[in-house]
Structures are given as C-alpha cells and as structure tokens.
Design goal:
Largest sheet: 8 strands, antiparallel
Low-confidence stretches: 1-10, 38-50, 305-346, 439-463, 658-667
Structural class: alpha+beta
Helix content: 25-40%
Mean pLDDT: 80
Radius of gyration: 37 Å
C-alpha cells in the first residue's frame, strides 16, 4: 500500500519527524511512503534536509497518515519548529550507530516545550550496529514505544507501520467544528491558479468558497487539495493545500495563518507561563517566540524582581539581535514588580511581540535565545491589561500567580470567570475567540472544547456562565454590585443624569449595560434617556410646592422663564420634576401643574366649536406664550384636532363625561 492514493473519505492523521541531522529521517519517510520528501535539488545533492518535506501513506488499518519531515541540522532549527509546531505526535528518529546527539537533544527539548506527549522512538541503521546502546541512552529521556528498523534494507518497516497504526489510533479526534487556524508552512504560485498555501489543519473544516482572514483581511478559498487530489471540503486533521483567490504571494508567507473570521484574537501582547527550560535565573529580555509555523521576535517583561545585574544579560546572541532589529516595542511599565514566580523556575511573564499573532489561552509555544535552553511557554491571557501606574506589575503578578505552577500535571489555566474577573467587563464573543467562552456559548458557535467521547456521552454542556450583563456583554458579579452602588450615588447627586453621561462616569463600554444596571437597581428608572431614583430631592419638591402656590389663582398662566429659577426650578430641577410627574413641561421655560392639559380640554369643550387660539387664551385666562404650546400639546394627545390654520375642535376624548354635547364643527 506504500505510496498508493489513500481511499477517499478515510480519516487522516498528521505527525512530524524529529531527530539529529543525518540520522535517516527522510530515508525512513521515503521507505514508508514511496514519496521523496526532499523537495529541493540542493537537498538531494547534499543528502541533507534543509526545508520541510511532506509525504503520506495508507496504514494497514486503512488510516491515512501524513508526515511532515523536518530538517535536523542546527542551522535549520527554525524550519524544524515550523513543522513540529502544529502536529499532535512525533516520530523521533535516532541512529543506532551515532546515538544521542546535540540536535537530538534540541529537538527533544522542543517536543517537551510544545507539550507533545505522544510519539514513537524509531532507532534506524540497525543493520550497521546493535541498537541496544542507543535505545538505553534514549530511554533516559524518551518513554515512548521503541521500534528498530533499517531504512535502507526495509528491515522492521512492517513493525513500524503497525506501531504507527497504534499511535494514530490513540490520538484525540480533531474537532471539526472548531474555528480554523491554518499555520502556513509553504506558499507558492501555480500558473492559471494563483497563490497556493499549505499547512496542517489541526482543527476545523475548510470548504471551497469559505471566507477566511489573512493578515486582518478577508480572503476566499478558490480550491482545496488533499494528498494531491482536488476536494470540495476537508476536515481536520489533514495536510491541505489551499488556493486563494486574488491574493498576492507576498501576503501569504510562512508563519502567517488563515483564520475563521471572529474566531481568534490577533494580539501583540500576551501574558504567559514559563515552563520547561526556564531554570531558576531571570528569563532573557529578548528572544524569539515559535508557535505553529511562526517565529516572531519578542521582548520579555518579567513580573519578578531582577536578581543581580541586568536580567538576561547572558546569552542574548543572535535572537536578541533579531528582536532588536525587528523593532519590538517596549513592554508596558517597568521591570521591578514583585513576581508571579512559583517554585521550580516556572513563572509568569509578559511577551511583547514584533507582530500580532492569533493566540488563545492555553496555547503552547516556545522561546529560543542563543546560549539558553529552549523554554516552553503556555499562554495565560491574550488581551492583558496595560501596566500603568505604580504597583501595576505587582497586582498583575498576584493575579497570575495561581496559574504559574511549575508542575504541568497540576498547573491550572484561567477560565472564563477568571478572565472576566480580571477585566470586569468583556464580550461573550471575545471570550470565545480567546478560547474561554462558557461551554453553552462555544457549543452554540459550533465549537465544543470537550473530548468527543464526552460530547457523545453527555451532549452539550448545559452550564452557562451565570453572570450579569446585557446583549453580548458580560460583567463580573462583584464588579456589577460595585457599579450598582456607584450608579445609585451618582443619581443621588445628579438626579436625571443622562444615560450616556452615566455610562462615561461608570467607565462602561455600552449604553445597554447602563440600562440593564438600572433595571437591576430599583427604584432607579430610565425616562426620556435620563436616570432617576425613588422620588425627587426635597429641594425640588419644595420648588414644585412654590409653583403650585403661584398657579393657585391662575392655573394656566405659567410663570415667566426668568421666574422659574427664583422658585427653585432650575432647568435640571424642572427635568427631574417632569419625569417624576410633578409638573407638566409644555416647552422650554413653560411649566404648568400635572393634569392641566386634561382640565384645559374640558374648559375648551364648553366653547362654541370650532374655536381659535384667541378664544382658548381668553377661556383659560392665559397668554399667547402659553396657549400656543398648550394647544399643540393637546393636539398631540388627540384631545383637540386642528381643522385649519386658525380653527380647532375638542375631540370626543377631550370632552368631560356627561359633557355639553356640543357638535364638533365641520372642517
């Protein structure tokens, strides 16, 4: 079956090779698949893999297996990491006649740093030397099953295929409903087709016609290929070639990613936990971050105190030079905050990236710096707060400390409630893009992060994130309570404050949150875009009392506008009293008592119909300044109806029960 076309519809798995240069990785892949993984003439001439190679085969079970063949030479570690980053398992190759070498160690450190826990140890060249010594040496580090082979003669290949079958059978089922993040590891053009990119689809599904995001811009999938054959759709896991419509080759380089729109946070600042290789000293201030196929210079901002001299002063080497040359922005704040360090060298630090990457909480990556061991990192927050003001680093260190444990088996990760507590307010969709959404939200958006067997056994998790909020916004429960108390105090000091002004005072991102907060804090209420409390201040009530006395003899002769402040009815007091129903505001500076409009309609119903504004003015004992806005107000209430420019009639609704029975005039 070696080299045969895999049957359509069969499941696919993707693993990478790893191991020291010239230990037979490519020879082994060639023997297993019948495909030459070394794509470049220089690679074949030198007998050494320089860039990533790709091949596939069908295993005895019918499962399709694709290999990402990585270079072993120390000069091409970046290429190696680009192939190793997106895969769930590794075939680690060790030559029996050479044993454990320098690049064996570096590749193994990378595997550990990336958290790849499944794989095979394949000892090659067993026809040249007894593999026992090499196996014993490797066993000090690698606990994976061992297969011994001779790639040049084919000895042991049958056992290797069976072992690979067992390996992939135990791999987690890729989540085809997850958002796509396809790290690009190759990009090229084909005459008549345009730009084509390739990568390992670790999760999600791609279809011809899909719209994806590349470098912040939307692009469309023109075509798809899997193992050399055109397909209409492909689900993870798979090696896939994607033909992009109208995309220039320069936009689609290695290290960039095709993303589901809205499914990822592209960030240039992240808080991470340092794991393997962190040691007990200070981390370097500059390094290179490797995740997926990307390698990006970063500045490292430690939250812990600097011990003895300049942190990271040793071993800055080429990685530091690269970071400096790339113009990586300075991290927020100073580097003298109390640390989030926990025993064993693990700690939390802030990374400031030279360019934004699509990251999620829980992503594993690694840091490389010349002269230092490879350091594994785990992403804790992809939208961390800026460190402004004295003590900001100390506070952030305290927040991250529970998640900086050195023991990977017991290390905790922030969940949605934790990140919401840090930020106070966040969008549901943003939590999901961070990889933290409540399960009910993630399932609704087509991604259930639980293992497939758990999904089948229990169905969608019914537990929502029970926190207050409005629309897409969520607010931490403690923060919500504090906001309610602050809003009550604001309204007490500024009765009738506009909703938008309250939003600004509370520092909330959306008006709908203020309205929801008002509903949750009775007796606060919103009326005409303003927020009132229970009743009105005593000063306003007393001012209304003085108005009532002034209108006692002439209820429709409103005080002049200049007189209102003398009564204590400022513009704000009038607005508050009107919303509370204590006064009737006809227009700016024209105020009557509540109910004056209905009473006026009854007075006007006694007039011969139709009547003029002058008739109404005389009947009500008022002036033109008041009668015109009063009549317009009655028209709006449908208590009167305008016949022409001069005449009105009182409608049936405006007549007093058992009224005069006068006929309305005809238009």
């Amino acid at each position: 079956m070696t080299g045969d076309r895999p049957p359509r519809g069969a499941g696919m798995y993707v693993i990478a090779t790893a191991g020291h240069v010239d230990h037979g990785k490519s020879t082994l892949v060639r023997a297993l698949t019948g495909i030459e993984p070394d794509r470049w003439a220089e690679e074949r001439r030198r007998g050494m893999t320089i860039d990533l190679g790709f091949a596939w085969t069908t295993l005895p079970s019918g499962r399709r297996l694709a290999f990402v063949d990585v270079p072993g030479h120390e000069r091409f570690v970046t290429n190696m990491l680009a192939g190793l980053g997106p895969v769930p398992a590794v075939m680690f190759v060790l030559a029996a006649d050479q044993g454990w070498q320098a690049q064996s160690q570096e590749h193994w450190e990378a595997i550990e740093a990336l958290g790849v826990e499944r794989g095979l140890l394949v000892v090659t060249r067993c026809d040249l030397m007894d593999p026992a010594l090499a196996v014993e040496e490797a066993r000090e580090r690698v606990a994976w099953p061992v297969v011994t082979v001779a790639g040049s003669t084919g000895e042991g290949l049958g056992e290797l295929r069976a072992a690979l079958d067992r390996l992939v059978a135990g791999l987690p089922v890729a989540d085809a409903r997850a958002p796509v993040r396809l790290w690009i590891d190759r990009a090229f053009t084909i005459r008549g087709a345009g730009t084509v990119v390739t990568g390992t689809l670790a999760a999600g599904r791609l279809r011809v016609g899909d719209v994806l995001v590349l470098d912040g811009e939307r692009v469309r999938v023109k075509g798809l290929q899997v193992t050399g054959e055109a397909v209409e759709s492909v689900r993870a896991a798979a090696r896939v070639a994607v033909n992009l419509r109208g995309v220039e080759l320069e936009r689609a380089s290695r290290g960039k990613a095709l993303l589901t729109p809205g499914g990822w946070v592209e960030t240039s600042v992240a808080d991470v936990r340092l794991e393997t290789g962190a040691g007990s000293g200070e981390p370097p201030r500059e390094a290179v971050l490797h995740i997926g196929s990307a390698s990006v210079p970063v500045r490292v901002r430690p939250f812990g105190p600097v011990h003895g001299g300049t942190a990271g002063g040793a071993g800055m080497g080429s990685a530091a030079g690269t970071a400096h040359a790339a113009g990586v922005p300075r991290a927020h704040g100073t580097a003298h905050a109390a640390g989030a360090a926990v025993g064993g060298g693990a700690r939390a630090v802030r990374l400031v990236l030279a360019r934004a990457l699509p990251l999620r909480v829980g992503d594993r990556a690694l840091l490389r710096c010349s002269g230092r061991p490879i350091t594994g990192v785990v992403v804790l927050d992809v939208l961390p707060p800026p460190l402004r003001g004295r003590g900001a680093g100390t506070r952030r260190a305290a927040e991250l400390a529970p998640f900086a444990a050195s023991d990977r088996a017991t290390a905790r990760m922030p969940d949605a409630a934790t990140v919401l507590g840090w930020r106070g307010t966040v969008r549901r969709s943003e939590l999901v893009a961070m990889g933290l959404g409540p399960l009910d939200v993630q399932v609704a958006m087509g991604h259930d992060p639980r293992p497939l067997d758990a999904q089948v056994a229990t169905g969608p998790d019914p537990r929502p994130l029970e926190v207050p909020g409005a629309g897409d916004w969520l607010v931490d429960a403690g923060r919500w309570k504090e906001l309610g108390e602050r809003l009550g105090a604001i309204v007490a000091e500024q009765p009738g404050i506009p909703v938008d002004a309250a939003r600004t005072a509370l520092g909330l991102p959306a008006r709908e949150l203020v309205e929801a907060l008002v509903r949750a804090c009775p007796p606060l209420r919103v009326s005409d875009g303003r927020i009132d409390g229970d009743g009105v201040p005593d000063a306003v009530a007393e001012a209304v009392g003085r108005l009532r006395e002034e209108l006692a003899r002439a209820p429709y002769l409103a005080p002049e506008a200049a007189r209102l402040p003398e009564l204590g009815l400022t513009r704000q007091a009038v607005a508050l009293a009107a919303r509370a129903g204590l006064v009737l505001r006809l227009a700016d500076g024209i105020v009557l008592l509540p109910g004056a409009d209905v009473a006026a309609a009854r007075v006007l119903a006694r007039l011969p119909q139709p009547f003029t504004a002058g008739d109404a003015r005389a009947a009500l004992g008022t002036n033109r300044r008041v009668v015109i806005p009063l009549l317009e107000h009655l028209d709006r209430l449908r208590l009167t109806r305008r016949l022409d420019e001069r005449l009105r009639v009182v409608t049936g609704e405006g007549r007093e029960p058992g009224g005069t029975g006068l006929e309305e005039g005809q238009p």
